[in-house]
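call fold(seq) -> tokens
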Amino acid sequence: MATSRPALREKTDVLANAPAVAKSVAASAKKPPVSHRRMSSQRQALDLDNLITICTQKIATNSGHRKALFIRANSYLKKRLYREAIEDCNQLMEMDPENAGAYYVRGCAYEKLGLIDNSISDFSRVLEIDPNHVNAAYARGACENRKGNFAQAIDFYTMALAKDRMAGSPPMKIGVENADYIIESTDACGDTPTLPGRTMTVDGRGQVKFSDVLKRANRNDASRLCSLGLDCRKKGDFAKAVDYYTQSIEANRENFKAVFNRGFAYDKLAEYTLAVKDYSRAIELEPTNAYAFYNRGIALDKQGLYDDAISSFTMAIALQSNKPDFYHNRGFAYRKKKDYRHAVEDYSAAVALCPGHFKAYYNRGRMYEKLNEYAKAETDYEKAVSIDSGNLNAMCRLAIVQEKMGGDRLAKSLENFRR
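ret:
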């Protein structure tokens, strides 16, 4: 006797949600030995073969047996015979164009074959027939996610989550029983996972939850938004970059890149307090990232918080001691504190790591000048000029120091002033 459309729909729902319930049951039971699991898998394969045989016999005597076609299509899907499953779904849809279960199973088969556009079309059709079909909404989102359409994926994941919360249905049985067959389904779309990225969890009542997959989709969208922020940053549009980075952080609050780069954009906008806040958050996310400490030090320095800046630069150096700029900028903070000796030490460390570091030579020369060590200052300014012969500041400071030194340096001083 043919099953009516509502009964088929009920069967489809149960089959679709069975894997989640199975996970819930398995979690509360002791895990069986490997040999038992292997036997269970073999028994399941045998059951599927028996189901296909029984359904084939039913269809041979009654080509319009809708239930047999549906069960055989679902069994083919589990056996990874995707084209056979599609053929059975096509026959079923010819007899019943509004059969949501047939569209759903065919959509799953198309997905397994990599025909994602076909899958999207079928899952969309399921939602037209049954707007409350949770798994179709999820499956459509997963396909969009696979295509890289992250915003659309999030929309459908959110829809699935909302539908699941609204359903409020009682726990479903794993077994699907009717007058002719007993089906135990491991997955509505074949072997687990049904669709890429599927990580459904189950609550104590055996109901499907989609928070995990929504979180994963959010991470993908966060990455896309962060890339848009980077594009704006490269163009010098730091305000727009902040907007994109903020959206990225809202999608994934653990997104280090978005937090770090928003701090950089805030710094460029002279919003130093906000920059420090973001760099501090970036450090919470990645405590061993030297550049987060370094950039925070720069923002603190710009606020006149030199002791805090020095502490941040010191942490950066502890994490990555081979970066000359880390020493140079700490030296600059010491200079602003008028701690010239410590500044000289840091500038010396910078030139030791990078012999062509113009700023380190120039600024160390300034410190020697402050300390009245003019010969050392002269040497550093001469080195700075040799690195950048067109730098007027370096030539001017060299001339001033030579003038202060007097004697035969006065002629050199006049020569430098004429440049």
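The longest helix spans residues 34-61.
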